[in-house]
Queue: 2 jobs
Job 1
Amino acid sequence: MAGVTFDRVTKCFGDVVAVDDLSLDVFDEEFLVLLGPSGCGKSTALRMIAGLEEPSEGTIEIGESIVNDVEAKDRDVAMVFQSYALYPHMSVRKNIEFPLRTRKVASDEREKLVHDAAESLGLETLLDRKPAQLSGGQRQRVALARAIVRRPKVFLMDEPLSNLDAKLRVQTRAELIELQRELATTVIYVTHDQVEGMTMGHRIAIMADGKLQQVGPPQAVYDHPANLFVAGFIGNPPMNTVSGPIVRTASDPAGSFGIGVEGTVIPLPAGHCAAIERSGAKTVVLGVRPEHLRPATEGGLVATVAVIESLGHERHVDCRLADGQMVISRLSSSEPAPLVGERVNLTVDPLELHIFDGVTEEAIETT
């Protein structure tokens, strides 16, 4: 197996910059998820690894070799597409063994490799069927078996679960995690679904507008988003963000202040105040996860309950501040819920606050 390295890679289609100065190391035997909204450049990055697109600038390495000028067929990577891309006239067996035939692998070895791949994905009883006789989940398994049968250096997966229903997606997600662990292989997985990214990847690399925004373990990215885009993209519901002026109180010690939001001041811990001072930010945006925004009897933000979404195990209480900004509080279903139209007080532990520069939108580090 092998790692993959992007070194200042840019890809342009005419005047459109699809991938902008991407530098990223994917480690050997890592499951890395390229995550971002549609059109952010993640699939283009994947296709450049596969050799289906050429970088406009920069270099791509697989293992220790630069592959910019290496043809796709010689890169020893396997790609699984969203559309399955199976040969409809071939049986499952022949679809799986096709890449082995093109490499002129001996028939005895082909039979063993096909059997092993089919067994690992539960396809043994389907080998003589045609793709039209299979369900969507079974077709996706065939596409995966065709990819793993020759044990390439790197597996590339471009939204392979997006055509499956919700229940099957959860099941196949778990199977892919187990498969990667069993094969001890390098996987680069593209998706716009943050649940897939958070649950599957050893690390996630978040992209927007062709640029890499942040890379790290899923929980670290959730807990410490690098900017407002990541804060709003990761998490369901996403992080609440509210903006307001920096307010200093005469009675406070020098260097201590809070953020004014709708007639109240949210106090900031000393570490947050010092970080804002160091950054030189003139305006800031506060972020707080919905699970950290709690109803209280008094104080905090005053808001009106607009919508209550019941999800069985929890409730999402959507509230509107007086200036129209929306915030969401996540409550357990065992907690009493307010009524729609009711005025509520919402408080937050200051230590759970995130701070972003109001101009650059970058996180202001507090440590």
Job 2
Amino acid sequence: MLGAHGIHRRQLLTLSFLLAVVAGFAQTTPVQDFGAEPRAHTGRKSFWTEFNLGGTLSRDGRWQYQIDYQFRRAADASFVQGGSHWNILKETQQQVFRPWIHYWLKPGAVRLSLSPLGYWVTWTPEEETALYPNQDGVTTGHSVFPEFRICPQVTTTHQIGRVQFIQRYRYEFRFLGQRRAADDNLSDFGKGLDFAPTDVGDQTAAKGWFGHNHAGRMRIQSRIQMPFGKEKVERKTFYLNVWNELFLSLGKHVKNDKLLNQNRFVALLGYRLDTEVPIKIEGGVTLQTIMQYNMDVNPTNPSVTYNKANVETNTAFTIYVIVDEFHKLFQKKAEEAR
């Protein structure tokens, strides 16, 4: 049972979390002064959702599966004149379908993972299409491009008291398709499926099989997870899930000033439902800093130039739905039907 000190500590942590969420959404894009700051700061607000379905495949629990589905929408960027800067549901931004296979090398401590082939579809708003070369020669209207990724991953977990410290290392082999004019319907999912090296875009500078449409990226994540009032996350438990993740573009084709790709700080308040099959819901904020460096003249305000030194801060309201032992939902239904 929590004493007064424990209750006060939990209230302070909850208040700190809520203040971080409010501060994230209240942040504004500062006026750029190139004399004092060499980078142009832009901003965006968005809404990210992820459904994470997983479970065990072997009796000893070492082998596991996981399937992710992500859906992201976004408001207009801060540099879009007259844009809808607070409507986080305005534009479809991205959809992701990604399977995983996991193996616990040391149960509870070291896990090896592989996503054999994930599929990304990313849309660009009409005000920003001109910033990106595309195969159709289109500079207005929505555009879309696909991407496949193969991802090996290593995760280590350390338990100290009720707090879990998790370190994750992921490498992404990225195969970027051709950007096309979007129809804003299901036909967009079949567009741009040409991953041969091309001179369109600036993902890489090397030719050959790993050419302009192929890229590599390292992701390093440090995370803590802590339940409130209990020793572990069990039924009817609130918990805090916070992490920071650094993205590095790697490979001989990457210029020194393009090594830093992006950074994400995520703060989520989670709750495990009172269900036999573990279901958790997490909500909070993601602060994403993206090193864009792709905008010279503002496409909606030609009188403003960013000298291709633009950095975007994306504040995303974030919701995760996590179902562990997902397959048992169907086993239970099958047993009830007998």
